[in-house]
Recover the amino acids of this structure.
């Protein structure tokens, strides 16, 4: 029997830990859960048969999963857990974190005999609820094989390289989400000002080469409806695009479009609100064009 621990029962972590619990029941493992707001861990335990635990208790697990907002919060819990970690354990960080933090955290944990894998996820809250997330893993390939059976929330698992590569791929993926979301918003605002029906415009774009997840799903379902359901915070998307900019600097690369969109998303975060859904970034475009995208 292995002890699995999940820290961070947010929009993503809560359903991910639920899938871990189903897997654990079938294979004779136990799942400990920890959340900063402890009531959420208690509710998870009652709903899914997990055990709410302290940071000291989760630190003694064989496999530790984290899904927190940024690498800074992972640092916070890691520093409190460090004295209680067990050699031979694996830390699987599903946060959309920073590649530089992964390098540092992996080295700190390695000194304690603990292996770190950066394993951010994509697929959104629906993918998390369905247990169909894509997991992009950086770190030791053999360590991934040890924990792969426990990735019960995954539909697809890809080893993308050494430590930090998972976080790097996630940051670039989300920067691309930002680019398509922002650019499609600009295009639609302009078409709206030209008097074009935006439903008809999207019908054409989605049958043509301008289509993307933003045009096919996000904008029709969240922007045109004016619902903007807050499943993925604008502040988190701006953070991810910022990591892609840091990555560009770190490798002395040149990615001006990604940098521009990162700056625009940061502006939208300040103007529209960090806790709004990421699609609400388009409200800044609406203000810039004095035209609602509807
Ligand atoms: P949420 O804001 O829903 O949840 C954040 C979690 O982190 C909560 O459990 C919260 O605890 C906890 N937390 C916040 N601050 C601290 C802290 N200082 N110390 C300890 N715990 C803390 O975020 P998501 O679940 O949406 O996102 C989690 C990660 O997954 C992020 O890196 C995000 O970029 C990524 N992601 C999100 C997706 C989405 O669609 N939402 C999709 C793919 C990746 P508390 O309950 O106490 O607030």
């Amino acid at each position: 029997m292995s002890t699995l621990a999940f820290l961070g029962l947010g929009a993503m972590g809560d359903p991910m830990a639920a899938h871990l619990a189903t897997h654990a029941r079938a294979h004779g493992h136990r799942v400990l859960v920890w959340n900063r707001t402890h009531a959420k861990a208690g509710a998870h335990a009652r709903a899914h048969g997990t055990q709410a635990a302290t940071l000291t208790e989760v630190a003694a697990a064989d496999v530790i999963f984290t899904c927190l907002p940024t690498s800074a919060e992972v640092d916070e819990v890691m520093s409190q857990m460090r004295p209680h970690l067990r050699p031979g354990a694996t830390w699987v960080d599903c946060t959309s974190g920073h590649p530089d933090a992964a390098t540092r955290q992996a080295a700190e944990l390695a000194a304690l005999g603990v292996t770190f894998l950066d394993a951010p996820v994509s697929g959104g809250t629906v993918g998390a609820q369905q247990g169909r997330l894509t997991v992009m893993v950086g770190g030791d390939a053999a360590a991934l094989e040890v924990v792969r059976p426990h990735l019960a929330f995954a539909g697809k698992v890809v080893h993308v390289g050494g430590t930090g590569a998972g976080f790097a791929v996630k940051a670039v993926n989300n920067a691309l989400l930002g680019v398509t979301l922002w650019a499609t918003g600009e295009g639609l605002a302009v078409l709206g000002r030209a008097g074009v029906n935006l439903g008809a415009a999207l019908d054409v774009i989605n049958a043509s080469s301008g289509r993307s997840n933003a045009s096919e799903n996000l904008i029709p379902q969240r922007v045109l409806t004016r619902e903007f359901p807050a499943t993925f915070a604008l502040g988190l998307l701006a953070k991810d695009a910022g990591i892609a900019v840091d990555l560009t600097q770190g490798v002395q690369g040149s990615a001006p479009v990604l940098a521009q969109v990162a700056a625009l998303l940061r502006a939208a975060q300040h103007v529209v609100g960090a806790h709004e859904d990421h699609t609400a970034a388009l409200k800044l475009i609406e203000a810039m064009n004095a035209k609602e995208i509807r």
The pocket of NDP is lined by residues 8-13, 35-37, 40, 67-69, 73, 76-77, 95-96, 121-122, 124-125, 231-232, 236 (CB under 6 Å). The beta strands are 3-7, 30-34, 51-52, 63-66, 90-93, 115-118, 121-122, 133-138, 154-161. The two ends are 54 Å apart (CA to CA).
